[in-house]
Specification:
The chain is mainly α. It has a domain of 89 residues. It is built from four helices and no strands. Helix 1 packs antiparallel against helix 2 and helix 3 packs antiparallel against helix 4. The radius of gyration is 19 Å and the shape is elongated.
């Protein structure tokens, strides 16, 4: 039995469950929540919710690109956690002020709460990650005339 069957190898940021979950949640927020906000919230709650939910998967993707720079990856994951928490507050405001899609918003809040916890665990796991040192191949040497 393959011991990696429960934890497939991560080859791209798209393989991270936290990326997948926040991307899907962002689509729901953008298609089913923000359009139902009143026009008076166009430049406040709607804009803020839109920006924060879209930022999370972007930050995860950008951070993954810097995963071998501990401080770089950590910063992006920390920023993604902050955006996730901000999204939770904005969703709760939508639910409590405008009574929009209460059940759906509760599920989204749970998704983003889980994402914040996953991001925290990812920062811990990645801080212990040791990249194997590889010997440079001959084709990376500098050629001089």
């Amino acid at each position: 039995m393959n011991s990696n069957s429960n934890n497939p190898q991560i080859k791209s940021f798209r393989d991270l469950r936290v990326y997948q979950n926040t991307y899907q949640a962002m689509l729901i927020v953008m298609k089913e929540i923000t359009p139902k906000l009143p026009d008076s919230e166009k430049f406040d709650l709607r804009d803020q919710l839109s920006r924060s939910c879209k930022a999370i998967p972007r930050l995860i993707a950008e951070g993954y690109g810097k995963r071998h720079q501990k401080a770089g990856f950590q910063k992006y994951l920390d920023d993604a956690m902050g955006e996730s928490n901000e999204t939770i507050v904005s969703l709760e405001q939508c639910r409590d002020i405008y009574a929009i899609e209460k059940e759906l918003i509760n599920k989204l809040v749970d998704t983003y709460d889980m994402a914040s916890r996953q991001l925290y665990k990812l920062t811990i796991a990645w801080s212990t990650f040791k990249r194997p040192l590889t010997k440079p191949s001959d084709d990376t040497s500098i050629i001089t005339d």
